[in-house]
Write a structure and sequence with these properties.
By secondary structure, this protein is α/β, with parallel strands linked by helices. Helices cover 40% and strands 27% of the residues. It has three helices and three strands; from the N terminus they run E-H-E-H-E-H.
Amino acid sequence: MKTISLIIPTYNEDGRIKKMITTLKQGVYFYGQVLKEVIFTDDGSTDETLTLIKKAKKYIERNIKAKVKIISYEKNKGRGFAIRQAALHAKG
């Protein structure tokens, strides 16, 4: 069976990330494919985005039975860089 990795690049998303985390907690279905991991890439956020992701990590892992990885760096380097970093760490 095919596995996939869900990549979520973030930058100052504390106002919107809560909705994404709630959606992940409810479970995700990918048309017969197995979600192997969720990779959040925090692209130098200056708000509470990284804190919210860290707080929700274990809860998400239990509910969707997929590993949650968090990649974070201090300086904003753009969405393309964030996606590339996540893709380099993806297993699915």
